Amino acid sequence: MSTPTSREEKVKQLRIIEIDRLIRSGSHPNATSLRKHFEVSRATIMRDIEFLRDRYNAPLEYDSARNGYFYTDPTFFVQSVMLSEAELFSVSVIQPLLEQYRNTPLEASIKNIFSKLTDMLPQEVSMDTTFIGKDITFISDPLPAISNETFTAVFKAMRTHRTIRFSYRALNRSEYTEHRANPYHVLCQKGNWYMLAYDFNHDRITTFSLARFKDITIEENAFSVPADFDPHQYFDSSFGVWNTNTAPVKIELLFSKEINTYILERNWHQTQELHQNDDGTVYLSFFSNQLQETLHWVMHFGSSVRVLNPPELAEQVRKEAQKILSL
After folding, report:
1. d(Cα 46, Cα 27) in Å, to the nearest integer?
2. Backbone angles phi, psi at 193, to 5 degrees
3. Between these two residues, 288 and 83, which has the higher pLDDT value?
4. How far apart, in whole angstroms, are the C-alpha atoms of residue 129 and residue 85?
């Protein structure tokens, strides 16, 4: 809650900004007109005038012929920025939201951009708010590290349409294998960066995690991206990315009434159908070709969800549960 002093300072700052605007408008305001405009005492206005001269070094003079104040330098203005509560909220939370760029060269670049923007702000910044950034906490997923060499080379090769050669450690392997690939597209899923590329090793488009690269080089030979390449065939913006470009199937799930509010209050997928049944259970359906990613998502609900369709997803859940039991 704002204290009386902070409220007075805020009102004063707003008054100074308005006085500056009136002077720059060429209307030659004086103490009498300003007193009436703001409904304050003459003494208050004179203190504001002195504040303009002393704090902002305003080139302020009184024109006796026009009976009002003017700036001897017409380019002068009070450099002050008023941030609304919503704007300050955006500023206070932007740093945590940049977590998805952590461990990539973009992190340093973005910080440098914000530093330059900060330097462009005036010395006086007034903030209209009831909270500050330390009152907000974001919990992010643990993110893998991506080398600057990998990140820079992949984007350069994609921009210049050059083939890359690199060592790659697949998810289920303990050693690195050499790959050659033409990078077509890069996507970021919750801070995890992936490359869609034509993989010469397997003669098909493959999804690679940038965190699993090492020893990357750019070759001289150029390539062209096929005209029929559509990156959206290889990922689901709601559920993630997996090595598949199969046609989407209808996924149907039934959630127990114990978590019905949690399920109902969220937008899980852009194609979803969602409703609560008379017994309190919740039906959710959507279309996706990412069955592996959907499996991982379904499993974290444990016994609170049942797969109604497709049969292959239900079978995957059963097999996964059996593996857990065997451990």
Report:
1. 18
2. -105, 135
3. 288
4. 5
Q: What is the DSSP letter of 247?
A: P
Query: Do β-strands 80-83 and 124-127 pair in parallel, antiparallel, or remain unpaired?
Result: parallel
Gap between the Cα atoms of 309 and 254, Å rounded: 10
Q: Tell me the pLDDT tens digit for each residue of 263-300.
A: 999 889 889 999 999 999 999 999 988 888 899 899 99
In eight-state DSSP terms, residue 35 is: H
- pLDDT tens digits, one per residue of 193-215: 899 999 999 999 999 999 999 99
Alpha helices in the chain (DSSP H): 4-24, 31-38, 42-55, 85-97, 105-120, 148-160, 260-264, 291-299, 311-326
CA proximity to 181, closest of 140, 223, 227, 130: 223
Nearest to 92 by CA among 123, 119, 128: 128
* Distance in angstroms (rounded) separating the CA atoms of residues 69 and 20: 10
Q: Is the pTM of this model over 0.70?
A: no
3-state secondary structure of 95: helix
The span from the CA of 293 to the CA of 246, in Å, is 14
**DSSP symbols for 190-243:** TTEEEEEEEETTTTEEEEEEGGGEEEEEEEEEE----TT--GGGGEETTTEE-S
Of 207, 181, 100, 115, nearest in space to 146 by CA: 100
Place of tokens 């970021």: 188
